[in-house]
Design brief:
The complex is a heterodimer of chains A (115) and B (117). Chain A has no helices and twelve strands. Chain A has 115 residues and is mostly beta strands. In chain A, a hairpin with a 4-residue loop joins β8 (64-69) and β9.
Chain lengths: 115, 117
């Protein structure tokens, strides 16, 4: 079974600084997707960034980028120029490709952004 | 992006009663919908996967007779918590997809907070 591990329950970053959230996963599949979702206090799940395992290039979305290391099964999220609105729970998630495959979530990292 | 709604956003019910939560895809046809449960400060736990027109597939440990899921149309799935008890109090989230795994895109509803008294 696939597992997703987030070893940092909480992280803190100063506004305008950079922070990296860690995620590792375990799978025997070669083709899959990895995601980072943000859950603010409203509890609405928001997709931050998505990576396809067959792509070697790291995904980037504005201030958000990932460091995808397929051999090491590592998928970290870097947030640059942190903003107060980035404060939220961040969940790393794995999905095997195929017919509407389900998401497996990590335990989450609570990010605090300080002035 | 695609929009998924849930109704109600909050519900309080008495122990022993049943409560229905609706999940609707507003601007796309959802071939598959997922139901999650989230305890305070915890991650999302998948309860079941629902494909339009067929029976839901429940995760291990989830009671299918307790959590009835119906996906009768391409835009609506319902979760009915039958004979609810205080331990069923939780935050329930649905998600929907139309791409049959091609892109991995899922769209989440805003969630429903259930409190059983």
């Amino acid at each position: 079974a696939q597992t997703v591990t987030q070893s940092q329950p909480e992280m803190s970053v100063q506004e305008a600084e950079t922070v990296t959230l860690s995620c590792t996963y375990d799978t025997s599949e070669s083709d899959y997707y990895l995601f980072w979702y943000k859950q603010p206090p409203s509890r609405q799940m928001i997709l931050v960034i998505r990576q396809e395992a067959y792509k070697q290039q790291n995904a980037t979305e504005n201030r958000f980028s990932v460091n995808f290391q397929k051999a090491a099964k590592s998928f970290s999220l870097k947030i640059s120029d942190s903003q107060l609105g980035d404060a939220a729970m961040y969940f790393c998630a794995y999905m095997r490709t195929g017919t509407a495959s389900k998401l497996t979530f990590g335990t989450g990292t609570r990010l605090q952004v300080t002035l | 992006g695609a929009v998924v709604s849930q109704h109600p956003s909050r519900v309080i019910c008495k122990s022993g009663t049943s409560v229905k939560i609706e999940c609707r895809s507003l601007d796309f046809q959802a071939t598959t919908m997922f139901w999650y449960r989230q305890f305070p400060k915890k991650s999302l736990m998948l309860m079941a996967t629902s494909n339009e027109g067929s029976k839901a597939t429940y995760e291990q440990g989830v009671e299918k007779d307790k959590f009835l899921i119906n996906h009768a149309s391409l835009t609506l799935s319902t979760l009915t918590v039958t004979s609810a008890h205080p331990e069923d109090s939780s935050f329930y989230i649905c998600s929907a997809t139309s791409d049959r795994g091609r892109t991995g895109e899922q769209y989440f509803g805003p969630g429903t907070r259930l409190t059983v008294t």
